[in-house]
């Protein structure tokens, strides 16, 4: 199997089934430095849009990947940083829709760049956008997303842009709200978030929480009773709790480089044995043998967290 630099997966996503990731920004460049980010702390905090990764290289990898017409549920723009930082994203979206129209495209975004009409125009051909909105009050917004407030739109501006985009966009919109217990789950903040969701009118609201280790140690997952309480605030819009991956797993065969897939997975987000097994379509015993060998030769390390043992690159 070919090893790619800008594509990763297909991986089992908690929301998108089997998803082929497209990473348009190097690690770890972003306009936010979210406390819960599973990709680690932002090392280059910027709002400058430019071609961080040569788009023609991404297109070459897509051409190679789709030679065999593999089965994936979504081609997803995501990765270590904000995809909309790369001003070439519109060209990649249009290339996929023109050359591989049978595949659905999705974008995970922190929403900040959607205040720009020209950015919204670049991504109109997408099938799905998953914008995030974690807070309404500025103090909570800054505590969670830790952006440069002098260069980044405030939550009210972001809400207005999402309202406009929902009216313009023909695809699906799933509004993501990431809950950090003790920070954005107060009565006031949840009331404001629910009212914002009613104005935006997404196809559904997805309540997300910590699944893998975040950037800050103090961020913890929601307890079941906390998740139930949060969901109760969203009465006038469809709402769901993001749960375990629903992907089918990848067939294991001699043409699949398992180690390459594992490396691609854990280089972007720490993963448990269960996560890796599900993604590769292997038994946990098979995966455990591979991980033991990788740990022994120093290629992989691990940490023990509340949800279990997470593997990552050194």
Could you characterize the architecture of this molecule?
- Strand 9 (204-208), helix 7 (224-231) and strand 10 (239-241) form a beta-alpha-beta unit.
- The longest helix is centred in the middle third of the chain and has 14 residues, at 155-168.
- The chain has 314 residues and is of the alpha/beta class.
- It contains ten helices and twelve strands.
- The strands form three sheets. The chain has an eight-stranded mixed beta sheet.
- It has two domains: 7-248, Aldolase class I (TIM Barrel); 254-314, Arc Repressor Mutant, subunit A (Orthogonal Bundle).
- The protein has helices at residues 55-65, 89-99, 117-122, 138-145, 155-168, 187-200, 224-231, 258-268, 273-280, 284-296; strands spanning 7-13, 17-23, 29-30, 44-45, 74-78, 105-109, 128-131, 172-178, 204-208, 239-241, 301-305, 308-312.
- Helix content is 33%, strand content 18%.
- Residues 246-256 have low confidence and may be disordered.
In short:
This protein is of the alpha/beta class. The protein has helices at 55-65, 89-99, 117-122, 138-145, 155-168, 187-200, 224-231, 258-268, 273-280, 284-296; strands at 7-13, 17-23, 29-30, 44-45, 74-78, 105-109, 128-131, 172-178, 204-208, 239-241, 301-305, 308-312.
